[in-house]
Specification:
Elements (H helix, E strand, L loop, with lengths): L16 H10 L5 E4 L7 E7 L7 E4 L7 H4 L5 H44 L7 H9 L1
Antiparallel strand pairs: 1-2, 2-3
Helix pairs in contact: 1-3
Amino acid sequence: MTTATATRKPRQPRLTVAQKAEALLANSHLWLRARAIGNTARCIGYLIPSNTVGGKYHLTNGKQCDCKAARAGRHCCHVVAAAAYIAQKRAEAAQAAAAAAAMLTDDAAHFTRWSATVDARTPEAADASDVVLAGVA
């Protein structure tokens, strides 16, 4: 008599919330921005794809989410991913603003040096090309 034994597949280890959030963050280019109704460009949250149901999106703003885990009061990978994304974008914006401010400061310093040079010139210090141009005009 032979007995048939069912072989089970080894169970995959469960991913942590942080691991799921990291995977979602890596695909942030697939997220949709949720905007307020009306003529505003203000982003009020993100629609992030569900990990369990294909084609379903969860609305989150980095603090709250409408997924099953969040509604049950558990930690939600969508909230963690959105909060990390928002922090990343704020850091990038701050870095870009600092670079722009540095460039403006450099331009202002250059203009100040140029202006001081022009103001310091006197007719006696003018070079020959200035004299020729002055005579043509």
